[in-house]
Design brief:
Rossmann fold; 8-stranded mixed sheet; 2 domains; alpha+beta
């Protein structure tokens, strides 16, 4: 493979970082990219985090109710989540969690302990990449090792999300491929949140998520490495306080923490290097692919309400010890047991009633 100077010019043109030559480069037809034209602008109002609807998670045998619950709970503003792998990994926006396996008491106590220990989060969506938006697509462009003479190539395709894919090579002292946004103007303010969350499916390699709180092209990059699993959705939570300040893959210990109140750009990268010359232990040269379905922000949220069968009415002490509240059916409605005697303010009684109706 031979270094391609045309790709370098396209990169400079896309990100408007060629100084006085930028207008000239953008005007060259052979460098123009209709899918990311500078005339496509993103409304700053669209960068305000949009709270996701509260979720009802169905555990174990209760997953069979999913179809019957989607419509009634959807009309009340709730989303039904029945995917076991998602449920096991996080409790994002969980308002209620349903347990229906009354005949499996030996598994209930471990389940209850897991619910007490599992962190709960409130989430808000920044970009739903499964809903293509030309203005969002126009933000993203390739930034590969061609800027330093390498031959890696990447691109973004919109296939059920943002598909970061290409070929990464260590030839010519290269070894990284990435896609980055143009600067947000004005910068994104997510200072009221604890971190970003990516719903991503990868290929088993370790990628980097990078954000910048300065508009400078070569400003400090705050990085977070994450591993992926082939053919499985991963929920990647990236705490702002755990992002590593770097400059060209070298850590900057004296740097101030990331300022989430002014995020100017975002970037996804596959690199043979971790930090300070250490190698990426999962790196494999050749073809790669990472799909991000959704990008959002999160912060700590309240524990979900547990919806239990009548047979579990006697577990109030265990619920209280775990700091959890549950509901069990009664002939005239339902009873609240455990840490509180009242429904959480964010849970509507009609939601609980719909769930118990589906159980019969």
């Amino acid at each position: 493979m031979v270094w391609n100077p045309l790709r370098l010019l396209k990169t400079l043109a896309h990100f408007d970082v060629a100084g006085p030559l930028s207008p000239v480069l953008r005007g060259l037809s052979e460098l123009a990219d209709p899918g990311s034209a500078m005339t496509q602008s993103l409304d700053p109002a669209g960068l305000v985090p949009t709270p996701a609807p509260p979720s009802v998670y169905l555990s174990g045998e209760s997953t069979g109710w999913a179809a019957s619950l989607i419509e009634p709970l959807g009309s009340l503003g709730y989303r039904v989540e029945a995917a076991p792998q998602v449920f096991e990994s996080h409790l994002g926006n969980a308002a209620l969690v349903v347990w229906a396996a009354a005949d499996h008491e030996d598994s209930f106590q471990p389940w209850l302990e897991r619910m007490g220990q599992m962190p709960a989060h409130q989430e808000a969506t920044l970009f739903d990449f499964q809903q293509p938006d030309p203005a969002v697509a126009a933000l993203w462009g390739s930034l590969d090792d061609g800027v330093m003479g390498g031959v890696s190539t990447s691109q973004v395709q919109w296939q059920n999300g943002l598909r970061f894919m290409g070929q990464v090579s260590t030839a010519n002292s290269g070894g990284f491929a990435s896609v980055r946004t143009r600067n947000f103007e004005p910068p994104l303010n997510v200072g009221q949140w604890q971190g970003t969350v990516l719903y991503a499916q990868g290929d088993g390699q370790r990628y980097k998520w990078i954000v910048r709180d300065n508009p400078g092209w070569d400003s400090l990059a705050y990085c977070y490495s994450f591993d992926t699993q082939p053919d499985r959705l991963s929920v990647v939570r990236v705490p702002f306080l755990e992002m590593v300040a770097t400059r060209r893959a070298r850590t900057v210990p004296e740097a101030t923490p990331l300022n989430p109140a002014q995020l100017y750009s975002m970037q996804l990268m596959l690199s043979k290097f971790e930090y300070d010359g250490e190698l990426n232990p999962a790196f494999q040269p050749g073809s790669f692919g990472l799909t991000v379905a959704r990008l959002g922000v999160y912060r700590q949220g309240p524990k979900p309400l547990l919806v239990l069968p009548k047979e579990n009415a006697g577990v109030a002490p265990q619920l209280t010890a775990a700091g959890l509240t549950g509901v069990v059916p009664q002939e005239a409605g339902f009873a609240v047991i455990g840490a509180s005697r009242n429904l959480p303010l964010e849970v509507k009684p009609a939601v609980v009633e719909s769930i118990f109706q589906a159980a019969h």
